[in-house]
Write a structure and sequence with these properties.
With about 350 residues, the chain is of the alpha/beta class. Helix content is about 40%, strand content about 15%. It starts with 9 loop residues before the first strand and ends with a helix. Bound molecules: UDP-4-deoxy-4-formamido-beta-L-arabinopyranose (WQD). UDP-4-deoxy-4-formamido-beta-L-arabinopyranose binds next to helix 7 and strand 8.
């Protein structure tokens, strides 16, 4: 079909100006989808839209709307003939969720509830939900598979992800005409190789890699490694660090898998990680080798709430989703560093 007749299925990307959302917008367009961004810019910057314009050479439709605003969201559903939804929009600061649980339950679950209602009303049948490995808590066995029992999440944030999965599962069980996939992210890191978009933490980063690159850039005095007395080979915690572009590509695969489903109601869950456990100290070494930058860090006390180690069994994503991570940790950290240097240059 020529471009005038070829349809580009429209995908509503809530939180599409955020870290994972914006990188997924790039992958969606490269895969022949038409993203429609909804973002209230509560935790993201309008400058991201400029970055997307630079990378893509075109505008991406964006509505400045809060996903909990049912009337405004209904307007978007009326205006845009949507093929599906990728739901990123949520508050995600683990520590803040412990201090302000109601803010998290209201926003994260309210937005999902509103979306599901509008999807049903407007006959939009495809949903990809942004979930998290945090639903596993500290797993008994590693690597975790999707059948690993979910443990009581360590935080209200983690609870909103587990409850979000249950809301979707129960809607599908009730034969709501929705085909849904929950993607359980492990630790997203890195940036688009162009260094035009990347992670934009507000204030002091709580996550490892943005704090690390800020310390390497001299914006922070030093990085503190939260504990080296864990029961791991080098004593530091182990995680599964996945390049944000690999994570973005997993969302495209999820949409394609949903398109293949014949039934009107479908639900499945996938771990989205590299399958490799990497310790905090190993990540620091990989950063120094990849960039040639010596990092100033100290060993400090454990951070309350941290799980000792978690990394993914990705067999199901590889075989059923038809997706696997392609980028190395070294590439992720080089891309993160290039993005940090670009931020300095602004
Ligand atoms: C990783 C490791 C820290 C900072 C959280 C959420 C998860 C997801 C990703 C949203 C830990 C150590 C960190 C520092 C350190 N978020 N660390 N010094 O906690 O694994 O996951 O973010 O979806 O849901 O739970 O990520 O990057 O905060 O920490 O030593 O300054 O790095 O102790 O072992 P985490 P993180």
């Amino acid at each position: 079909m020529d471009s005038s007749t070829h349809s580009f299925p429209k995908i509503l990307v809530t939180g599409g100006a955020g870290f994972i959302g914006s990188h997924t917008v790039v992958s969606l367009i490269e895969a022949g989808f038409e993203p429609v961004i909804v973002d209230n810019f509560d935790n993201s910057e309008p400058s991201v839209l400029e970055g997307l314009r630079t990378i893509l050479g075109r505008e991406v439709t964006c509505y400045t709307v809060d996903c909990n605003d049912e009337a405004a969201m209904d307007e978007i559903f009326r205006k845009e003939a949507l093929h599906g939804v990728i739901h990123f929009a949520a508050y995600k600061a683990v520590g803040e969720s412990v201090e302000k649980p109601l803010k998290y339950y209201r926003n994260n679950l309210g937005s999902l509830w509103t979306l599901l209602g509008l999807m049903h009303q407007h006959g939009v049948a495809h949903l990809v939900f942004s979930s998290s490995c945090t639903v596993y808590g500290q797993p008994e066995q590693l690597p975790v598979t999707e059948l690993t029992p979910r443990l009581p999440a360590e935080s209200p944030y983690g609870n909103t992800k587990a409850m979000g999965e249950d809301i979707i599962r129960d809607s599908v069980r009730a034969k709501m005409p929705v085909k849904a996939i929950s993607l359980r992210y492990f630790n997203p890191v890195g940036a688009h190789p162009s260094a035009v978009i990347g992670e934009l933490p507000r204030g002091v980063p709580s996550n490892l890699v943005p704090f690390l690159t800020q310390a390497a850039a001299g914006l922070r005095d030093k990085l503190t490694v939260f504990g080296d007395d864990y029961n791991t080979p080098d004593g530091s915690c182990i995680r599964d660090f996945i390049h944000v572009m690999d994570l973005a590509d997993a969302h495209v695969q999820a949409l394609r898998l949903l398109d293949q489903q014949e039934t009107s109601s479908f639900y499945d869950i996938f771990n989205v990680g590299t399958g490799q456990g990497v310790s905090v100290l190993e990540l620091i070494n990989t950063f120094e080798e990849a960039t040639g930058v010596k990092l100033n860090y100290i060993i400090g006390p454990r951070r309350p709430g941290d799980v000792e180690q978690i990394y993914a069994n990705v067999d199901k994503a590889n075989t059923v989703l038809g997706w696997e991570a392609k980028r190395s940790l070294s590439e992720s950290l080089s891309d993160a560093w290039r993005w940090q240097q670009k931020l300095q240059a602004k």
